[in-house]
UniProtKB/TrEMBL annotation:
KW Transmembrane (keyword) present: yes
UniProt domain Major facilitator superfamily (MFS) profile: residue ranges: 25-403
Name of the protein this chain belongs to: Predicted arabinose efflux permease, MFS family
Species in which this protein is naturally found: Mucilaginibacter gossypiicola
A Pfam family matched in the record: MFS_1
Matches recorded under InterPro entries: MFS, MFS_dom, MFS_Exporter, MFS_trans_sf
TM region(s), chain numbering: 21-47, 59-80, 92-116, 122-148, 160-180, 186-207, 227-254, 260-279, 291-310, 316-338, 350-372, 378-397
MF-aspect GO terms: transmembrane transporter activity
Keywords: Membrane, Transmembrane, Transmembrane helix
Keyword 4Fe-4S: no
Length: 417
């Protein structure tokens, strides 16, 4: 079967017949997302030290460079969602892959111009912006394309595999970037950023095309935001913990003379993926708000462990605990958010919901840079603990207000299996 002739925008979700190789779709989705976030992980593994030590800029500038990617992603979610719902996820994915590859080329230019810090920084900033836009289009395109291919009864699987690809790629990318730099040079790490998206382009060709109809009224982005903002706010606050790890854990370890900074990011990803594999059904079984509350308390514990760490091992364990806590936050708040949106507009809904994650990450880097000041990196993780606690409070209020009962096989609830 090479083409899906029916699509969610033209008929009722219950009538959509999923593509006959669902597992193949999920594996391909995982592969594309994994490679995209492998690129992002490589960046996070090498850029903080590169900007701070090699180019000689401040911690605030490190935060700005890291945060610009997420700001670019946030600003383009609207356009990505609109394209995915009107022209199809495939087209959005292609744009995302090409922009991501182009970002690597700008990073290579930055590495070659290292002798002129201002020029090198400008090239790096351009690369970060392009990578942010590329990630926006690719992720939303994968969501929209995958939702149609697997059918409405399996949309939760797309979210689960997408999430595993995200953090799995991030976890592997950081040590890979550092290893490539140590074995060769920073330019080699940047070259990987340019080349890996091309592999995604090849993988994408394994998925069938989907024909969409433009007859259904589209949900404007601002209305989608209005529908998901409560869940999105909880997600944004929870994401600050990860933002602190992604942006400054390397410099924190260097300051403390600890080894294994890249393994902190790896530990986060490992904890995240293990929980996703074995416990992804909990939001449907016990309700998204309840699971979010427990998950966020675990994240608080992880952030406090990093804040109070007296050794690299404690920092790594804290990052792993943070990953365990964050693992089910996205699908837990997501079950609350997406049930308020029709299947015809889930591309835009996911764009709006993901925008809150981008907002949380994008604001974290520069704010954390200010909090760190001239080297108080541990305070970043105290901030992460406080915001995760506020997110847990929002989840509690949601639980008390709605007392939503989630059931299996519902068109209005994402089935997380």
């Amino acid at each position: 079967m090479s083409t899906v002739k029916q699509a969610i925008p033209t008929i009722k979700p219950a009538d959509v017949k999923p593509y006959n190789n669902i597992f193949g779709v999920l594996i391909t989705i995982f592969g594309m997302i994994f490679l995209e976030f492998l690129v992002m992980g490589i960046s996070l593994g090498v850029l903080p030290d590169y900007v701070h030590s090699r180019l000689g800029f401040s911690n605030l500038m490190v935060g700005v460079v890291i945060g610009l990617q997420y700001a670019a992603t946030l600003c383009t979610r609207h356009f990505a969602g609109k394209m995915a719902d009107t022209k199809g996820g495939r087209q959005a994915v292609v744009i995302g892959i090409l922009l991501s590859a182009l970002s690597g080329i700008f990073c290579i230019v930055s590495g070659l111009a290292i002798g002129i810090p201002s020029i090198s920084l400008l090239a790096l900033i351009a690369g970060r912006i392009l990578l942010g836009i590329g990630e926006s289009y690719l992720v939303i395109g994968v969501f929209a394309w995958g939702f149609i291919l697997v059918g409405p009864q399996n949309t939760g699987r797309v979210m689960v595999w997408n999430g595993m690809g995200m953090y799995g790629g991030m976890a592997c990318g950081a040590p890979l970037g550092i290893w490539l730099q140590s074995q060769s040079s920073i330019t080699t790490s940047f070259a990987a950023i340019a080349l890996l998206p091309i592999v995604s382009l090849l993988a994408m060709r394994m998925l069938p095309r989907v024909i969409l109809s433009g007859q259904v009224k589209r949900l404007p982005f601002y209305k989608a935001v209005g529908l998901v903002w409560k869940s999105g706010t909880g997600l944004a606050l929870a994401s600050i913990g990860f933002g602190g790890i992604a942006s400054f854990i390397t410099l924190f370890f260097i300051q403390q003379s600890w080894q294994g900074a890249s393994f902190a990011i790896t530990a986060f990803g490992a904890g995240y993926i293990v929980v996703r594999i074995f416990f992804a059904g909990l939001p449907d079984r016990f309700g998204g708000a309840r699971v979010a509350m427990i998950s966020l308390l675990v994240e608080v514990a992880g952030q406090l462990l990093i804040w109070s760490a007296t050794s690299g091992l404690a920092g790594i364990l804290g990052a792993g605990l943070t990953g365990i806590g964050m693992s089910l936050v996205f699908p837990s708040f997501g079950t609350i958010a997406v049930k308020r949106v029709s299947a015809e507009n889930r591309g835009m809904a996911m764009a709006a919901y993901n925008a809150f994650f981008d907002l949380g990450i994008g604001l974290t880097a520069p704010i954390a840079g200010l909090i760190a000041g001239k080297g108080h990196y541990s305070n970043i993780y105290l901030l992460g603990a406080l915001t995760a606690a506020v997110s847990a409070l929002l989840a509690y209020l949601e639980y008390k207000k709605d007392k939503v009962v989630f059931t299996n096989n519902s068109d209005d609830v994402i089935e997380m299996i």
